[in-house]
């Protein structure tokens, strides 16, 4: 039973994150209890389990570094625990890297193992509060660093530009690190992932020097499309937590530009 249970758990988790709904459902008992890290993932019964899985079908993930072991066994069934890393490399414009742990309780039924209880949780270490202004939680910093790795793999080397600050200081800025640019009176504010700076260059002059991943969404804002988290009506949410406005007349074209860019610049 040991090898069967361990390999079955490995397959269930991989198929779950690959969104192979049929395979996962076949391994569940009618009275399955599932407790997951999301608020919606406190479920009892196979029908409710199916409903939640169907909602989550749209975004596939991958699993790596998965390790499982048999921690309890009897004639009626067994218990398997494990840990793994789940990640997404930009599919559906979604990026995530997280360490998770799981426990499966199986019941032997009609000659096979069926899961009757599943508990999945994220590790709490990356939720510890740090001392960074832009990343108060370790999870934010870890996901940012992971996103930077994907971006650098896609766009290659740094492209640094020198900007004059308000007090004539010089800032050497990697263009790829700029999240968005905000216009001010005869100046501009560069919002990067780990700092912000005011420079003596109007936003219109900066716009002419920027590469294709930057677009003007508002008279006061230029965004880096690589840092768009999601789009709502007349608003764009960026990965640093900023929400930027989009004028109603400009919104259809901005939305199309974002969609076209991500269709043509997949991380995978």
TrEMBL record:
Domain of life: Bacteria
Example GO molecular function: phosphorelay response regulator activity
Gene3D superfamilies: 3.10.450.50, LytTr DNA-binding domain
Membrane-crossing segments per the record: none
Family annotation (InterPro entries): LytR-like, LytTR_DNA-bd_dom, NTF2-like_dom_sf
Annotated ranges, domain HTH LytTR-type: 166-260
SMART domains: LytTR (SM00850)
Pfam families: LytTR (PF04397)
Coiled-coil region: none
Name of this protein: SnoaL-like domain-containing protein
Species per Swiss-Prot/TrEMBL record: Eubacterium callanderi
